[in-house]
Amino acid sequence: MSLNVKKVLLYSTVFLGGVSTLIGCSNGSGNSTTVIEPNSGLEVLGDTIKYDPNKLVNNGEPIELEFYVWDDSAIKEIVESYEALYPNVDIKMVVNPWDDYWTKLPLALSGNDGPALFNVHNSHHENIINYMAPYDIPLEDLTADFLGVEPHVIDGEVYYTDYGMMTGVIFYNKDLWANAGLTDNDIPTTWDEFTKVAEKLTIKDGDKITQAGFNMNGDFGNLLSGMPYQLGQTLFDESGTKATVSTDKNVEVAQYFHDLYKEAGVGSGDFGTKAEESFGQGQSAMVYKWGHYNNTLLDKYPDINYGVFEVPTFTEEPFAYDRYNGESTFGINKNADEKEQAVAQDFIRYFLANDDLQKDLCLALSVFPNKYSLAKDDDIKAHPIMSVLTDHINRYIWPGTMPATIENTLKQVAENIIYNGMDIQAALEDGEKTMNADLSKVDFVSSEAKYEYTE
Amino acid sequence: MTTLASKTKTVSMVRSKKGLRSKSEILLRNLVVIGLLAYFTIFLIIPIIIAFVGSFNQWNPLKGEFNYIGLENYLTMFSSGLFWKSIANTFIFSAIVIIFRVALGLGIALAIYSKFVKNKTFFRTIFYMPVVTPLVAVAYVWTFMYNPQIGLVNSTLGMDINWLFDAKYALGSVMMMTIWKDFGYAVVLYIAGLCSLPRDCFEASSIDGANGWQTFCHITLPLLKPTTLFVVVTSLISYLQTYVPIMVMTQGGPGTETYLSSYIIFEEAFVKYNFGYASAMSFVLFILIGLLTMLSFKITNSES
Questions:
Q1: What are the angstrom distances between the C-alpha of A216 and each of A123, A196, A249, A302, A420?
Q2: Average of per-residue pLDDT values in chain B
Q3: What integer is the mean pLDDT of A273-301?
Q4: From CA A276, how far away is CA A293, in angstroms rounded?
Q5: Cα four-point dihedral sign B151, B157, B161, B165
Q6: How far is B220 from chain A (nearest CA, A)?
Q7: pLDDT score of A7
Q8: Less Cβ around it within 10 Å: N or C end of chain B?
Q9: Which site among B31, B59, B62 would you substitute to test the A interface, given the most A Cβ atoms closer than 10 Å to its Cβ?
Q10: Is the CB of residue B250 less than 8 Å away from at least one CB of chain A?
């Protein structure tokens, strides 16, 4: 071997040795001589789930945790608040965009160096549940403080639950509403009334729409999944494992929305191909959107003067107004280091017991809090989305951790009806077939049976 | 003469023997070859083998599921109407885009190569610019251009068509964008091909009194056959795997009207996490691409 090669190898060895030493020294859980005193005199938080901050975490020794999130904006406050309480704890938030998140997270969790804490979304339940540690909080305490815990119980344990719920509402443009001579008294409570209001809000130049009364482009699929509940039609059969989207009631719902476009002419698949943009640009007077659209309007279309009302119904007493989806509490990695898991459990308890932090999070994300103590909170009641949900909040149903095929296929069904002119019954049957073929490959059981009003 | 040849042979042998004797050269050669072999083994061969085995399994690597189900994925695939629809769409898409890419590429290359055109570099750059522009960005811009209310296409043509949501136009609209973005690649290759053609053939045809069209049909086009083959084969391989413009512009819609084979593979693997089924479809696509590429070479070779 030449002298140069030997030199390169020698320098490389020295460099790698140095780097290894530095890495070794920087280990977050290494020894430290800094003495941290326990907190004292701080208020104990919580109703049933209590959190006493007058203590040390990890015996006051420095510890570093990773926290995987797809968006840190709303969660940062919780982490900073916890770190301020315990200066020896360093929670590093690792942000991955949504699409990357759901491939990187399960792979990281399957190894030994995955994050101790992570954001959970129930649509990916199947891929992450095997890597999660149960909460170290008694089930009865959780159910005493939170609505909707029951569907999340697995063999008596809870691995995550919902801190908030999101559902669909109708957003309307107040300026266009006023231009049409409508007032707050005209807010519809039935779909028949809705049609009449939408007709008043529609403006045409000949046959061509210049302002849509109602725009459901991109959202018709969600209407197909949520509105049949009003007629008592669930998304899944009694076994909870097969989709039922082609019954007479499903056809009735699809026919109503089809006729809104094709008969009443209050909108069109060709006018404002994305409802959210069309509403944001003031071209459409009403849209059906889930709560997160409130933030989209605030961020992207701040000039739109909008209001919100609850979805109208087909009957006076609907079985459920719509389906909802829970915003999940954080997950704990069961493969993480024991000390990290202990801190993660403490962090979860801190979050669940802390009303202020949960309220801020719910307000920031426009989700209705599942914590009973927040349901009547003044700030929550004043929020445009939550204010319209308060009266019937227990009349929204959660179908469970639905696989992606349900929403994706219903979107295709909706497009087949609106754009491809497919017969409604045939389109729904075709969609049902696709969904059931996909459902046969996954372990999914609907949570519809756990809905309070299911007979 | 003999002496010169003999000396050359001697030098060559010395170099050869010296090359064989040089340990550093042998070491370098071995390192490079081992490195390449390791790279292709780790990042190509092993994943292909795993995917092939996976195609016989109910496979979701994200939750560690890997259950043998025999030929079920293949049987499901061959009986799926959506799979065959996506294959048909893929062939229509590829054929039309390749025809336009070759025709436009050749036509514009001939125009730029012509002695009547000045500033050849400028035009070559202009036509090549879309090729180096990121596909996702181009697809978003074209989506905006196709907007039925405020899009440039309808306002320029005075039409009222919902390009990306009408089953009659949706796939064609994506093809149009792809042709616009990609034909510059063929332009540059054809210009390079034209520059390398032997001038004596053209001089001879001129002396024989051939007109421009005859020269193009009987001299230029046949001599450009290797370039055409290269453009067609690389385009075929690329377009049979198209999914980015579909994902950005139509998400396979309206309904499933613009599903291409790679898009359905993407959806099965990364939306439904059905990696076994996606692998089965990938293998069929892999074989199809291989067969079509072989066919292209065979046709050209037989004509030669």
A1: 23, 16, 20, 21, 16
A2: 90
A3: 95
A4: 8
A5: negative
A6: 46
A7: 52
A8: N
A9: B62
A10: no
With beta carbons under 8 A apart, name residues in chain B contacting A438. Answer: 272, 274
Residue B264 CA, chain-centre distance (Å), reads 19
Candidate from A106, A107, A420 with C-beta closest to B167 = A420
ipTM: 0.83
CB contact under 8 A, A412 and B255: yes
pLDDT tens by residue, A207-255: 899 999 999 999 999 999 999 999 999 999 999 999 999 999 999 999 9
Give ∠ CA A218-A224-A228 in degrees, rounded to 5: 155
Task: Determine which of B22, B59, B60, B63 to mutate to test the interface with A (most A C-beta atoms within 10 Å).
Answer: B63
Task: Mark the ranges of chain B whose per-residue pLDDT is less than 70.
Answer: 1-21, 303-304
Residue % of chain A over a pLDDT of 90: 80
Strand, coil or helix: A397: strand
Q: Are the beta carbons of B274 and A416 separated by less than 8 Å?
A: no
Closest CA to B287 of B40, B87, B102: B87
Q: What is the pTM of this model?
A: 0.85
Measured between CB atoms, does B168 come within 8 Å of chain A?
no
Count the neighbouring beta carbons within 10 Å of the beta carbon of residue B120: 12
The answer, yes or no, to whether residue A27 has pLDDT greater than 50, is no
Facing B272 at nearest CB: one of A269, A418, A438: A438
Kindly determine whether residue A405 and residue B165, on different chains, have CB atoms separated by under 8 Å.
no
Q: Please tell me which of the candidates B24, B62, B257 has its beta carbon nearest to residue A420.
A: B257
Chain A touched by B165 (CB under 8 Å): yes
Dump pLDDT digits (tens) for A88-125.
999 999 999 998 899 899 999 988 889 999 999 998 99
Angle (CA) A183 A185 A191, round 5°: 105
